[in-house]
Amino acid sequence: MRTLIDRLWWSLDRVPTPARWCAVVGWATVIFVLSAQPGLRVSDDPGVDLPTRHLAHIAAYALLTLLLGWALAGRRRPTGRAITLAAVGALLYGVTDEWHQTFVPSRTGRVEDLVWDGIGVLLAAMLLTLVARTEDRPT
């Protein structure tokens, strides 16, 4: 039985590789712009703001990893190499993003944020691995 993930992956097969890389650059730009915002907060209540920030880190870097894996895979299933490169690339971008935040007023670069980024990367890598293990292209 083919999974929803598999069907979605192959439905995106028609997107040309340059457009895939544009999606990667576009999402990386969104992350950069949001990181450049001084005093970016969801709420003054730390009980709301902190979990929301953690989820945002997970989601942002999961999506970046998925987009990188999609771009690297081209018109085939992602390979172990592509998944590894996507994960390492997303984590390295996270490192540069935290460094970038040290230059933004009222922002800091934190190792804790890299841990949340890493959780997103790991979840996306697991999803890409599921896609890589699918049997055949859906008909």
Kindly describe this structure.
This protein has 139 residues and is mostly helical. It has one domain (4-132). It is 71% helix and 0% strand. It has helices at 4-11, 17-35, 46-73, 80-101, 111-132. The radius of gyration is 16 Å and the shape is elongated. The model has no long low-confidence stretch (mean pLDDT 88).
Instruction: Give the overall pLDDT as a whole number.
Output: 88
Shape: elongated
- Share in helix: over 70%
Q: Cα distance, first to last residue?
A: 12 Å
DSSP, total strands = 0
Structural class: mainly alpha
**How much is the radius of gyration in Å?**
16 Å
Number of domains: 1
Q: What's the SSE blueprint?
A:
Blueprint: H1 4-11, H2 17-35, H3 46-73, H4 80-101, H5 111-132
Which key terms come to mind for this protein?
139 residues; mainly alpha; elongated
A few lines on this structure:
With 139 residues, this protein is mainly α. It is built from five helices and no strands.
